[in-house]
Amino acid sequence: MRETDLKKTYLGVDLGGTKLMVGEMDENGELLRYKRYPSGPLDQREALELIKRSLDDFLADRPDMPDPAAMGLGLVGRIDGRTGLWLEIDHDRAKPTPVTEILKETYGMPCFADNDVRSAAKAEMLFGQGKSSENWIYLNVGTGVAAGIVSNGKLVTGGHCNAGEVGHSASGIEFRAPCVCGRPDCVESVASGLGLDLCARLLAPQYPDTGLAIPADHTRVSASEIFSLYETDPLCKILTDNAAQALANLIMNLVRFCDPETVVLGGGIMSDDFLYRRILERLDPYTTRYVTGGVVRTGLDPRKIGLLGACSNAIKGMEEI
Ligand SMILES: [Zn+2]
């Protein structure tokens, strides 16, 4: 095969709260190969070292093919997508790091970055919802809850690269669980992976006969186990109902704020169809009457959308040069 017959490829690094994935995607959004690396609570310096080690490993094992056209990063925390400056992981881990500059220098290819959820929204822009609409929301329900909001074809970033942190809005349900952000009743603290774990531990003493496994160590309570015990276990029913109502309230609020044609749901918690169906039951038809594309689950693989998003940062970045 001549080199000109080969499609351009893009490297991607997806760093979430619990895992790091490195992959390579072609320009049609097909992941050619990928590898997962263990991660954990890291500061930015440690995370950058982990990214470099993982990239070295991934690239050493690369079949004989042309160099990738560019690299994209989807990182947890607050990133300035225009400059590639990684401002913070969270409030306590804030050491602004010029991550794209460092990696461009190290690997000799253009490098672009954004936060993990906006990156996933860019994958939707290129290969999913964005192909048919200019006004939509990508709502990620995973370790946390956050959104990529696309308005008139543009992804909203905000004045401090902090737009879309919609998980930190009031859940509107009776049960309250304190949130890490300081507010007493956030959606994230009842409906995310971390929130379901927190609420299971808070409510378990009221349900001594529960069959739900609540690990004594730092292992998180399994969301899919909660959903699978819904019909038979009262604790699992209340946890699921609370999460579904909080997410339905959030979606209806976002619909009123942003007037999207479609709301796309993704993230690890949304890979389970059960919670999705409980959310749909709770959406008011009048409130969502202009959401003509519906409240849908992503057509991209919800477990790989973060990595597709990281690679999409590279494509979008090269388009804008
Ligand atoms: Zn919060």
If you average the pLDDT, what whole number results? 92
Question: What compounds sit in this structure?
Answer: zinc ion
Q: Determine Rg (CA atoms, Å).
A: 20 Å
Number of discrete helical segments: 9
Structural class by sheet pairing and helices:
alpha/beta
Uncertain stretches: none
Helix content: 25-40%
How many structural domains in the coordinates?
A: 2
Strand order of the largest sheet: 3-2-1-4-8
CATH superfamily membership of the largest domain, which one?
ATPase, nucleotide binding domain
Total beta-strand segments:
13
Q: Based on the structure given, which CATH architecture of the largest domain is correct?
A: 2-Layer Sandwich
The CATH class name of the largest domain reads: Alpha Beta
Largest sheet: 5 strands, mixed
Shape: globular
Tell me the span between the first and last alpha carbons. 30 Å
Please provide the ordered H/E string of secondary-structure elements.
EEEHEEEEHEHEEEHHHHEHEH
Q: What is the CATH topology classification name of the largest domain?
A: Nucleotidyltransferase, domain 5
Strand proportion, as a percent range, falls in 15-25%
